[in-house]
Amino acid sequence: MRKKFLLLIFSFLICLSANSCKKNSFENETNKEVILASFTVLADIIENIAKDEFVVRSITKPGMEVHGYQPTPSDLIKASKAFVFIDNGFGFELWAEKFVSNLDLKRVTISDRLDPIFINEDFYKGKPNPHAWISPKRGMIYVDIIVESLSEIRPSKAELFRKNGKIYKSKISKLDKDFSIFINNLDKNNRYLVTCEGAFSYLTNDYGMKEAYLWPVNAESLITPKRMARTISLVRDQKVPSVFCESTVSNESQIIVAEETGANFGGDLFVDSLSEADGLANSYLNMLQHNLVLIKKGLS
Ligand SMILES: [Zn+2]
């Protein structure tokens, strides 16, 4: 306590001499409570809801594969400063259960309040697909869940969460409306989304599209001859104009599918991780925008 008091006095004297108390990051950091997210996409959504008054950190970094991540000792230090850990659930963070078991903080798991779509393939058959944030329609539900959960934990900030959430949702809603119009104008036979990971079930389900993929979940990104042959014949039979992969895995196999079928390789979509600050998907909104623009271009 005494140490903390001396530190505060010290930082006060420093900022007096620098005449920039407001910008003193030390003071800001010490005053703000920390919210910890499991991955960058979620951290960005939370940041938009809790901004200015809380510090939001992510366990996994931009560009990382999240499913099979192994937390490090520095992640535990990060977590010890937070009052709440927010994760996606539906089996997305295979490491989360063990990670939080020894921590003294609240936990909010988005999937506890979300309707699942189940995977219908191999080893994963009957398990919920974790990638719900990929659909703007579900993204808006994520905002509601986070606003609600944080308001329960910090009722004094409920109004701030509600206000920020409303503004943020209106931005996601614009992307939702724009994409809905595009799909509604697309021939029903031309609505196949062929990707590497089966991560787009929520998007295809919510917008009346059909989904095909090389493997169901990145944690087991096995490309077998059977899966390859199945995808190639579907792309040929359905005359799918473009096939896609995603940023955190190798796109080699999908490029082969494109070459074998004469389809166009439509590019890498962002799914499990945001990009670095200077990248194409440096926020959840930019990630959605990037994906929807690529899909529109590929299927037009
Ligand atoms: Zn994934």
Give helix and strand order, one letter per element, not per position. HHEHEHEHEHHEHEHEHEH
Describe the biggest sheet? 4 strands, parallel
What's the gyration radius in Å? 21 Å
Can you count the helices?
11
> What do we call the CATH homologous superfamily of the largest domain?
Nitrogenase molybdenum iron protein domain
List key phrases describing it.
300 residues, alpha/beta, Rossmann fold, 2 domains, 4-stranded parallel sheet, two-stranded parallel sheet, 11 helices, 46% helix, disordered N terminus, binds zinc ion
Give your account of this protein's structure:
- This protein has 300 residues and is of the alpha/beta class.
- The protein is built from eleven helices and eight strands.
- The N and C termini lie far apart (63 Å).
- The chain has a four-stranded parallel beta sheet, with helices on both faces. A two-stranded parallel sheet has the order 5-6. A two-stranded parallel ribbon has the order 7-8.
- Helix 5 (96-101) links the parallel strand 3 and strand 4.
- The relative contact order is 0.12.
- Mean pLDDT is 89; it is low at 1-27.
- Bound molecules: zinc ion.
- Zinc ion (ZN) is lined by residues 67, 131, 197, 199, 218, 271-272.
- InterPro entries: AdhesinB, Bact_metal-bind_prot9, Lipoprotein_PsaA-like, ZnuA-like.
